[in-house]
Amino acid sequence: MIKATEKEKEALEKYLLQFLNIEKMFPLLPGITNKESMAGLMGIDHEELENLRTLFRENAKKAALEMLKEEEVLEWIDEIPLEKDDTIVAFGDSATDDLQGWFEIFKNALDITVPEADFTFINAGISNNTTSDALRRMSRDVLSYEPNWVIVSLGMFDSQRLSFAPGRTLLPLSETWENLTTIEDAIATVTENPPVWITPPPVIPGLLEKMELFEFEIEERDLSNIREILTGKKGYIVDPLGKRMGNPPEAWYYLSDGINPSLSGHVNTVKELLRSLATAKVVDNRPKKDQD
Q1: Residue 250 placed within a domain
Q2: Contact 229, 286 (CB under 8 A)
Q3: Which CATH number is 232's domain given?
Q4: Contact, 127 vs 93, CB < 8 A?
Q5: Cβ 90 vs Cβ 103: under 8 Å
Q6: In the chain, how many domains are there?
Q7: Is residue 105 included in any domain, yes or no?
Protein backbone atom coordinates (compact mmCIF):
# COMPACT_ATOMS: atom_id res chain seq x y z
CA MET A 1 0.00 0.00 0.00
CA ILE A 2 1.25 3.47 -0.90
CA LYS A 3 1.00 5.56 2.25
CA ALA A 4 -0.39 9.08 2.20
CA THR A 5 2.11 11.85 2.88
CA GLU A 6 1.68 14.04 5.94
CA LYS A 7 0.30 16.79 3.70
CA GLU A 8 -2.21 14.38 2.17
CA LYS A 9 -3.23 13.15 5.62
CA GLU A 10 -3.79 16.73 6.69
CA ALA A 11 -6.02 17.28 3.66
CA LEU A 12 -7.97 14.13 4.50
CA GLU A 13 -8.51 15.20 8.10
CA LYS A 14 -9.34 18.84 7.43
CA TYR A 15 -11.44 18.49 4.28
CA LEU A 16 -11.65 15.34 2.14
CA LEU A 17 -12.37 12.39 4.38
CA GLN A 18 -15.75 13.52 5.65
CA PHE A 19 -17.01 13.28 2.06
CA LEU A 20 -15.11 10.13 0.97
CA ASN A 21 -17.79 7.57 1.74
CA ILE A 22 -16.71 5.23 -1.05
CA GLU A 23 -18.94 2.43 0.19
CA LYS A 24 -22.00 4.47 -0.75
CA MET A 25 -20.65 5.41 -4.18
CA PHE A 26 -19.84 1.84 -5.23
CA PRO A 27 -22.05 -0.49 -3.15
CA LEU A 28 -21.72 -3.40 -5.61
CA LEU A 29 -17.92 -3.32 -5.87
CA PRO A 30 -16.40 -6.65 -4.75
CA GLY A 31 -14.56 -6.13 -1.50
CA ILE A 32 -16.38 -2.91 -0.69
CA THR A 33 -17.06 -4.18 2.84
CA ASN A 34 -13.35 -4.81 3.44
CA LYS A 35 -12.44 -1.88 5.68
CA GLU A 36 -8.70 -2.42 5.26
CA SER A 37 -9.09 -2.14 1.48
CA MET A 38 -11.11 1.05 1.78
CA ALA A 39 -8.48 2.58 4.03
CA GLY A 40 -5.74 1.48 1.63
CA LEU A 41 -7.35 3.40 -1.23
CA MET A 42 -6.87 6.55 0.84
CA GLY A 43 -3.26 5.75 1.77
CA ILE A 44 -3.96 5.22 5.46
CA ASP A 45 -4.50 2.17 7.63
CA HIS A 46 -7.85 0.93 8.95
CA GLU A 47 -7.34 2.31 12.46
CA GLU A 48 -6.55 5.80 11.14
CA LEU A 49 -9.66 5.72 8.94
CA GLU A 50 -11.92 4.67 11.77
CA ASN A 51 -10.43 7.23 14.16
CA LEU A 52 -11.02 10.06 11.69
CA ARG A 53 -14.57 8.96 10.88
CA THR A 54 -15.29 8.67 14.60
CA LEU A 55 -13.97 12.20 15.09
CA PHE A 56 -16.41 13.58 12.51
CA ARG A 57 -19.33 11.69 14.05
CA GLU A 58 -18.42 13.00 17.50
CA ASN A 59 -18.32 16.54 16.07
CA ALA A 60 -21.88 16.09 14.82
CA LYS A 61 -23.05 14.89 18.23
CA LYS A 62 -21.34 17.77 20.04
CA ALA A 63 -22.91 20.25 17.61
CA ALA A 64 -26.34 18.74 18.32
CA LEU A 65 -25.82 18.97 22.07
CA GLU A 66 -24.79 22.61 21.80
CA MET A 67 -27.79 23.41 19.60
CA LEU A 68 -30.15 21.75 22.08
CA LYS A 69 -29.21 24.31 24.72
CA GLU A 70 -31.50 26.72 22.88
CA GLU A 71 -35.06 26.63 24.23
CA GLU A 72 -36.51 27.50 20.84
CA VAL A 73 -34.93 24.41 19.27
CA LEU A 74 -36.46 22.15 21.93
CA GLU A 75 -39.86 23.70 21.31
CA TRP A 76 -39.57 23.03 17.59
CA ILE A 77 -38.63 19.39 18.19
CA ASP A 78 -41.75 18.97 20.33
CA GLU A 79 -43.88 20.13 17.38
CA ILE A 80 -42.37 18.30 14.40
CA PRO A 81 -44.86 15.92 12.71
CA LEU A 82 -42.80 12.71 12.94
CA GLU A 83 -44.14 9.47 14.37
CA LYS A 84 -41.87 7.57 16.72
CA ASP A 85 -41.26 4.63 14.38
CA ASP A 86 -40.77 6.63 11.17
CA THR A 87 -38.08 5.96 8.60
CA ILE A 88 -36.44 9.18 7.45
CA VAL A 89 -34.27 9.34 4.33
CA ALA A 90 -32.03 12.27 3.45
CA PHE A 91 -31.51 12.40 -0.32
CA GLY A 92 -28.76 14.78 -1.26
CA ASP A 93 -25.22 15.68 -2.29
CA SER A 94 -22.05 16.59 -0.37
CA ALA A 95 -23.73 18.55 2.41
CA THR A 96 -25.87 15.49 3.17
CA ASP A 97 -23.09 12.93 2.69
CA ASP A 98 -20.85 14.83 5.12
CA LEU A 99 -20.07 12.71 8.20
CA GLN A 100 -20.57 15.80 10.36
CA GLY A 101 -23.29 17.29 8.17
CA TRP A 102 -26.82 18.56 8.80
CA PHE A 103 -28.47 15.13 8.66
CA GLU A 104 -26.08 13.64 11.21
CA ILE A 105 -26.70 16.61 13.54
CA PHE A 106 -30.47 16.27 12.97
CA LYS A 107 -30.28 12.54 13.76
CA ASN A 108 -28.34 13.15 16.97
CA ALA A 109 -30.74 15.89 18.06
CA LEU A 110 -33.74 13.57 17.72
CA ASP A 111 -31.98 10.59 19.31
CA ILE A 112 -31.08 12.74 22.32
CA THR A 113 -34.43 14.46 22.81
CA VAL A 114 -36.77 11.59 21.86
CA PRO A 115 -34.97 8.55 23.34
CA GLU A 116 -38.17 6.47 23.43
CA ALA A 117 -38.60 6.77 19.64
CA ASP A 118 -37.52 4.11 17.17
CA PHE A 119 -36.59 6.28 14.21
CA THR A 120 -34.68 4.80 11.30
CA PHE A 121 -32.31 7.28 9.65
CA ILE A 122 -30.98 6.61 6.14
CA ASN A 123 -28.28 8.94 4.82
CA ALA A 124 -28.66 8.71 1.03
CA GLY A 125 -26.34 11.60 0.26
CA ILE A 126 -23.46 11.18 -2.20
CA SER A 127 -20.92 13.91 -2.70
CA ASN A 128 -21.10 16.11 -5.82
CA ASN A 129 -24.35 14.54 -7.03
CA THR A 130 -26.45 16.47 -9.48
CA THR A 131 -30.21 15.86 -9.58
CA SER A 132 -29.57 13.52 -12.54
CA ASP A 133 -27.00 11.50 -10.58
CA ALA A 134 -29.41 11.25 -7.65
CA LEU A 135 -32.37 10.30 -9.81
CA ARG A 136 -30.50 7.33 -11.30
CA ARG A 137 -29.97 5.80 -7.85
CA MET A 138 -33.27 6.78 -6.28
CA SER A 139 -34.90 3.35 -6.46
CA ARG A 140 -32.01 1.66 -4.65
CA ASP A 141 -31.11 4.38 -2.19
CA VAL A 142 -34.53 5.84 -1.31
CA LEU A 143 -37.62 4.00 -2.52
CA SER A 144 -36.40 0.54 -1.48
CA TYR A 145 -36.64 1.64 2.17
CA GLU A 146 -40.29 2.70 1.78
CA PRO A 147 -39.59 5.75 3.94
CA ASN A 148 -42.19 7.77 5.80
CA TRP A 149 -40.29 10.99 5.13
CA VAL A 150 -37.85 12.06 2.43
CA ILE A 151 -35.75 15.19 2.88
CA VAL A 152 -34.31 16.35 -0.44
CA SER A 153 -31.22 18.57 -0.56
CA LEU A 154 -30.11 18.75 -4.20
CA GLY A 155 -29.43 21.27 -6.94
CA MET A 156 -26.11 22.84 -5.95
CA PHE A 157 -24.05 20.83 -8.42
CA ASP A 158 -26.54 21.19 -11.28
CA SER A 159 -25.49 24.83 -11.35
CA GLN A 160 -21.77 24.29 -11.99
CA ARG A 161 -20.27 26.40 -14.78
CA LEU A 162 -17.18 24.51 -15.93
CA SER A 163 -13.99 26.49 -16.46
CA PHE A 164 -13.84 25.56 -20.15
CA ALA A 165 -17.58 26.16 -20.75
CA PRO A 166 -18.67 29.06 -18.53
CA GLY A 167 -21.56 30.02 -20.80
CA ARG A 168 -23.86 27.27 -19.51
CA THR A 169 -24.65 25.37 -16.34
CA LEU A 170 -23.77 21.68 -16.16
CA LEU A 171 -27.47 20.82 -16.32
CA PRO A 172 -29.95 23.09 -18.06
CA LEU A 173 -32.59 24.47 -15.73
CA SER A 174 -35.27 22.55 -17.62
CA GLU A 175 -33.54 19.27 -16.77
CA THR A 176 -33.23 20.22 -13.11
CA TRP A 177 -36.96 21.01 -13.10
CA GLU A 178 -37.83 17.65 -14.70
CA ASN A 179 -35.55 15.72 -12.34
CA LEU A 180 -36.99 17.35 -9.24
CA THR A 181 -40.53 16.76 -10.49
CA THR A 182 -39.75 13.08 -11.08
CA ILE A 183 -38.23 12.84 -7.60
CA GLU A 184 -41.38 14.44 -6.18
CA ASP A 185 -43.63 11.99 -8.04
CA ALA A 186 -41.53 9.02 -6.92
CA ILE A 187 -41.71 10.03 -3.27
CA ALA A 188 -45.50 10.06 -3.53
CA THR A 189 -45.45 6.36 -4.47
CA VAL A 190 -44.05 5.32 -1.08
CA THR A 191 -45.46 7.81 1.44
CA GLU A 192 -48.39 10.13 1.90
CA ASN A 193 -46.20 12.58 3.79
CA PRO A 194 -45.07 15.51 1.62
CA PRO A 195 -41.42 15.92 0.65
CA VAL A 196 -39.18 18.23 2.63
CA TRP A 197 -37.12 20.43 0.28
CA ILE A 198 -33.92 22.09 1.51
CA THR A 199 -32.80 24.84 -0.84
CA PRO A 200 -29.12 25.25 -1.77
CA PRO A 201 -27.42 28.09 0.10
CA PRO A 202 -25.28 30.63 -1.75
CA VAL A 203 -21.55 30.06 -2.23
CA ILE A 204 -18.61 32.35 -1.55
CA PRO A 205 -16.89 32.75 -4.95
CA GLY A 206 -13.61 34.05 -3.56
CA LEU A 207 -13.07 30.86 -1.56
CA LEU A 208 -14.19 28.59 -4.39
CA GLU A 209 -11.69 30.13 -6.80
CA LYS A 210 -8.79 29.22 -4.48
CA MET A 211 -9.63 25.50 -4.41
CA GLU A 212 -7.28 23.55 -6.68
CA LEU A 213 -9.62 20.55 -6.65
CA PHE A 214 -12.43 22.37 -8.45
CA GLU A 215 -12.50 23.65 -12.02
CA PHE A 216 -15.92 25.24 -11.98
CA GLU A 217 -17.81 28.24 -10.70
CA ILE A 218 -21.24 28.49 -9.09
CA GLU A 219 -23.16 31.71 -9.49
CA GLU A 220 -25.92 33.04 -7.27
CA ARG A 221 -28.22 33.72 -10.22
CA ASP A 222 -28.23 30.00 -11.05
CA LEU A 223 -28.84 28.94 -7.44
CA SER A 224 -31.66 31.47 -7.23
CA ASN A 225 -33.33 29.81 -10.23
CA ILE A 226 -33.13 26.42 -8.52
CA ARG A 227 -34.61 27.85 -5.31
CA GLU A 228 -37.47 29.22 -7.38
CA ILE A 229 -38.17 25.72 -8.73
CA LEU A 230 -38.15 24.29 -5.22
CA THR A 231 -40.47 26.91 -3.80
CA GLY A 232 -42.98 25.84 -6.44
CA LYS A 233 -43.07 22.29 -5.08
CA LYS A 234 -45.59 20.71 -2.74
CA GLY A 235 -44.25 20.08 0.73
CA TYR A 236 -42.13 21.78 3.35
CA ILE A 237 -39.76 24.38 1.88
CA VAL A 238 -36.71 24.94 4.08
CA ASP A 239 -35.10 28.37 3.72
CA PRO A 240 -36.80 29.38 0.44
CA LEU A 241 -34.64 32.48 -0.03
CA GLY A 242 -31.33 30.79 0.84
CA LYS A 243 -30.48 33.16 3.70
CA ARG A 244 -29.51 30.70 6.42
CA MET A 245 -25.75 31.28 6.01
CA GLY A 246 -26.16 35.03 6.43
CA ASN A 247 -27.13 37.78 4.03
CA PRO A 248 -24.61 38.18 2.48
CA PRO A 249 -23.23 34.71 3.34
CA GLU A 250 -20.51 34.66 6.00
CA ALA A 251 -17.31 32.65 5.52
CA TRP A 252 -17.61 31.33 9.11
CA TYR A 253 -20.43 29.08 7.96
CA TYR A 254 -18.39 27.38 5.23
CA LEU A 255 -15.41 25.12 4.79
CA SER A 256 -12.41 26.43 2.87
CA ASP A 257 -14.10 25.72 -0.49
CA GLY A 258 -16.88 28.27 0.03
CA ILE A 259 -19.48 25.64 -0.97
CA ASN A 260 -19.77 23.03 1.74
CA PRO A 261 -20.99 24.19 5.15
CA SER A 262 -18.88 24.13 8.29
CA LEU A 263 -20.31 22.65 11.47
CA SER A 264 -21.83 26.04 12.27
CA GLY A 265 -23.36 26.23 8.80
CA HIS A 266 -24.85 22.76 9.16
CA VAL A 267 -26.37 23.75 12.50
CA ASN A 268 -28.07 26.66 10.73
CA THR A 269 -29.58 24.20 8.25
CA VAL A 270 -30.86 21.95 11.03
CA LYS A 271 -32.46 24.88 12.81
CA GLU A 272 -34.24 25.94 9.62
CA LEU A 273 -35.33 22.35 9.02
CA LEU A 274 -36.76 21.99 12.52
CA ARG A 275 -38.41 25.38 12.38
CA SER A 276 -40.04 24.57 9.05
CA LEU A 277 -41.30 21.18 10.18
CA ALA A 278 -42.64 22.62 13.43
CA THR A 279 -44.20 25.88 12.30
CA ALA A 280 -44.70 25.98 8.54
CA LYS A 281 -47.81 24.84 6.75
CA VAL A 282 -47.35 22.40 3.90
CA VAL A 283 -47.40 24.45 0.74
CA ASP A 284 -48.71 23.45 -2.66
CA ASN A 285 -47.76 26.09 -5.18
CA ARG A 286 -48.14 23.80 -8.18
CA PRO A 287 -50.60 24.74 -10.93
CA LYS A 288 -54.21 23.78 -10.11
CA LYS A 289 -54.22 21.05 -12.76
CA ASP A 290 -51.28 19.29 -11.03
CA GLN A 291 -52.89 19.32 -7.58
CA ASP A 292 -54.64 16.04 -6.92
Answers
A1: yes
A2: no
A3: 3.40.50.1110
A4: yes
A5: yes
A6: 1
A7: yes
